[in-house]
Prior knowledge:
Layout: H1 4-14, H2 17-36, H3 40-43, H4 46-69, H5 76-89, H6 92-98, H7 103-107, H8 120-134, H9 144-163, E1 166-167, E2 171-172, H10 178-198, H11 201-209
Antiparallel strand pairs: 1-2
Helix pairs in contact: 1-10, 1-11, 2-4, 2-10, 4-5, 4-9, 4-10, 5-9, 8-9, 9-10
Residues 90-91, 116, 155, 159 line the site of zinc ion.
Amino acid sequence: MATETEKTFAxxxxxxxxxxxxxxxxxLFCFIxxxxxxxxxxxxNDWLRALSDNAVHGIIGMWSWAxxxxxxxxxxxxxxxxxxxxxxxxxxxxFLLAGSLSLKDALNLPHRPFFHCSTxxxxxxxxxxxxxxxxxxxxxxxxxxxxxxISWTSHHVRDGIRHGLWxxxxxxxxxxxxxxxxxxxxxxxxxxxxIMYLTGTREMMSIKHGIHIDV
Length: 215
Ligand SMILES: [Zn+2]
């Protein structure tokens, strides 16, 4: 059980100077990456465009999780790689729906593929939390639902600047304004950390990752 001091440290870490600078850097990265991708040699090659777009999803996932955990120990990198993988792997559903490995087929689908339904995020996060509670996995794997939340939400929001958010079965929003995408992406690690603090996950994470205050 976390002490009051650990709880306070966990909350302070959520809004530390370092984490705020890191999230401003994340917003800047999104902006620069999107400018770089306007180069014709990327835009004119489908594979290059798809791979670079997917790599940005992965980097945003890794960067976001690094902000959440504070990145202090060597073994934190395993979690960060996992967050990047979760943020990137969503796009596999394009190929699953196409039933083919052809990029042309994957990009010309009759409707959006299943993992791009944003309703899935709260459903999967809450189901995972319930399963962990049921099997008493909450200490060692307590981070997983939140990692999924941040990785998948950042992916959906980034796709949302072109396609809007698909809130199945209710329909989809209009494309998100670019400023909203950057703002949500940069704020998401703090929102996630704060919810983790409120739900008690944050103290466990602070104990696991080592307490560090930088305010
Ligand atoms: Zn996508």
